[in-house]
């Protein structure tokens, strides 16, 4: 924007306002517009994060504010990283993230591919499919708890109707072997639509002329899929995996409602452990260190992944 | 979904039929749990836990009555001594040897959800629009870093920042207040709002404002009278996304509120009837809570992809 235009604009505004506004250069407006957001994020995100870091080096307990707070150095970090029991939630989280991503990507991409065939009514059915991901994970977790009830649940009834296994013989949420899969099932139900949507955008971003050229070259449909469809949709698929990965790493709502980490600690993902340490045992310092370790892990993994994603994109 | 003029080399009729039946089958399986919740809301508690699950049943309002009231058990003689019941819910309660003791907490909790969702959406969208305009139209130093910082605030597990926010809110007297929750959700949503709105505003040609400024508008007037109306659709879509997030949020709500400011998601799962969870009441509460989201999903379907990927993918 060249200065003369601004001057002319200011000159023709009503005098009172102009006197007020003329002082506001574009630079001032930019800062005035951006600053409130930055200030809010500093207050509600960065300040708490710094506080968490500070607390992570202490033995502070939030339920005993009068007890003397002692600096414990890196003790919290050491005890977390050397505690074999901490690997349980980490493993549970990894198991959960890997399986949900694997299943949802295959299922989501296949369905996106099917939707992209443009059969009659595909718009309506796609909208129907997208509903679950817009719901509250807590509410979803709660009503799936109902569907998983061993004696009365619709899920058990359906499975036993198909397989003939008596419905009372498997308790999805109460059995060590089944509970993690119960959570994978619910997460898949809720979030496959998300993957479908992103994959669909990927499929639709592929220009038609590439297929037309392949057709001229008499490439088989199978070959077209492997050499055109999949590679060109790959950056989108990877983006879906990134977003789902970050979200599922943080997963709390659904697990808390479905199993609260049980039975035993089979479904105790990292967020559940964190909640227990911080808000039930009130080991504030210890749980702050745990939170920082988690944050660094997500942030680190996400960054490495984004680098890989950019490489694929630029190919 | 999008009906853009994209045509792959037209798929054969048989491919379409297979694709269509795959998608429709998945959609029906997806809908089943939701339909089941809506059906359960209309059952009596015994019907809701009968086995095999009842598909044909006499609809009852008991779930809704139990959702909105609290009841107390009385002796049969006492109930016979009462004057005739005044209203359906009273009748249903008396048939189970109970009288209505008072309203339940559902309405206040639902109302909290409404106030917090609207309040935080308003602030997030207002701040987000301003910041997005700032980033879109002016050369801001370190703009990329600031934008990445804004995005990265979403990577933190809510439980990780919940500890210091809990402490901070306790100091400031914001614990368990609607204002505190509005502030928190505004901070969480503003990152999404900035990213989404920046995409929308980037698409509005700068020439419009420049023309308006040549006609004598100041920068701020041009923003208000030219940019805002042009961005209206984007602002509306962003607002609905923010609203849905605040409406669905559970982790912060369950950790930071206990009564006064509690929203519906932590409340619905704890509705307990005689002898355990009152599933029809829970289902009724869930159904009422889900309706706005289902409507929003249909309204949003064009923007869905942008909203869930922070505008990283556009259609």
UniProtKB/TrEMBL annotation, chain A:
Every copy of the ABC transmembrane type-1 domain together lies at 90-305
State the membrane topology: Multi-pass membrane protein
The UniProt record lists the keyword Metal-binding: no
Which InterPro entries does this UniProt record tie to the protein?
A: MalF_N, MetI-like, MetI-like_sf, Sugar_ABC_transporter
Q: Enumerate the transmembrane spans.
A: 29-51, 96-115, 127-147, 178-203, 224-246, 286-306
**GO cellular component labels:** plasma membrane
PROSITE patterns per the record? Answer: ABC_TM1
GO BP terms: transmembrane transport
Subcellular location as annotated: Cell membrane
- Give the protein family: Belongs to the binding-protein-dependent transport system permease family.
Q: What is this protein called?
A: Sugar ABC transporter permease
Q: Which organism is it from?
A: Prosthecodimorpha staleyi
TrEMBL record, chain B:
Q: According to its UniProt record, where is this protein located?
A: Cell membrane
How does the record say this protein sits in the membrane?
Multi-pass membrane protein
Output the CDD domains linked to this UniProt entry.
Answer: TM_PBP2
Recorded coiled-coil stretches: none
Which key words are in the record?
Cell membrane, Membrane, Transmembrane, Transmembrane helix, Transport
Q: Which GO terms describe its cellular component?
A: plasma membrane
Pfam families of this UniProt entry?
BPD_transp_1 (PF00528)
Q: Give the transmembrane ranges.
A: 21-42, 110-134, 146-167, 179-197, 226-247, 279-300
Q: Which GO terms describe its biological process?
A: transmembrane transport
Superkingdom per UniProt: Bacteria
- Give start and end of each ABC transmembrane type-1 domain: 110-300
Q: Which InterPro entries match?
A: BP-dep_ABC_trans_perm, MetI-like, MetI-like_sf
Tell me its family: Belongs to the binding-protein-dependent transport system permease family.
Kindly give the PANTHER family that the UniProt entry links to this protein. ABC TRANSPORTER PERMEASE PROTEIN (PTHR32243:SF52), MALTOSE TRANSPORT SYSTEM PERMEASE-RELATED (PTHR32243)
Please report the name of this protein according to its UniProt entry.
Answer: Carbohydrate ABC transporter permease
Task: Name the source organism.
Answer: Prosthecodimorpha staleyi
